[in-house]
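Structure in, sequence out. Go:
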């Protein structure tokens, strides 16, 4: 059985039309991370604020590192979650655009790879980027649509995926605050 969007292209178009006249079309997301021990972090998501509505969105998950990288190996790494967030955003953007266009997809997968220099992360190499220098991704799409249509949808993703835009465009301001409790 092929995966399907739980909504159709018409419902997505209706949602877009609801957003158009709204002055406040922002959705505000919040997560709280709490260090537990070693490399284990508990992360709690909070309700999403959208315009004048509260969307219930309470989830708890863990972040850890493999034992070989000083963790306990009980959960995915922060890097896994970063790439998973990117994959989730890109895949939902792809599936939504395909639905709007009436394109049927039998299978849609996305693989993302990246390398980190662990010496940079731990301060051994000081003048090296501790982040991913490059992320490579590959869509694998099974569809009866033309390759031109699939490429158009894939190109749509790089303009409208919010996580792709956050990572790739370098336009996101990160505001830092440190609160010291004694």
């Amino acid at each position: 059985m092929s995966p399907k969007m739980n909504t159709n292209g018409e419902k997505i178009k209706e949602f877009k039309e609801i957003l158009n006249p709204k002055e406040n079309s922002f959705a505000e997301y919040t997560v709280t991370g709490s260090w537990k021990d070693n490399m284990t972090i508990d992360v709690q998501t909070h309700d999403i604020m959208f315009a004048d509505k509260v969307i219930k969105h309470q989830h708890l998950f863990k972040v850890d590192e493999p034992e070989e990288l000083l963790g306990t190996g009980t959960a995915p790494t922060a890097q896994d979650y970063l790439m998973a967030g990117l994959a989730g955003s890109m895949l939902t953007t792809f599936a939504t655009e395909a639905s709007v266009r009436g394109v049927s997809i039998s299978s849609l997968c996305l693989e993302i790879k990246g390398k980190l220099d662990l010496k940079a992360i731990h301060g051994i190499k000081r003048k090296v980027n501790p982040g991913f220098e490059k992320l490579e991704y590959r869509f694998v799409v099974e569809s009866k649509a033309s390759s031109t249509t699939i490429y158009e949808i894939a190109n749509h993703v790089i303009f409208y995926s919010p996580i792709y835009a956050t990572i790739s465009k370098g336009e996101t301001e990160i505001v830092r605050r440190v609160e010291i409790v004694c």
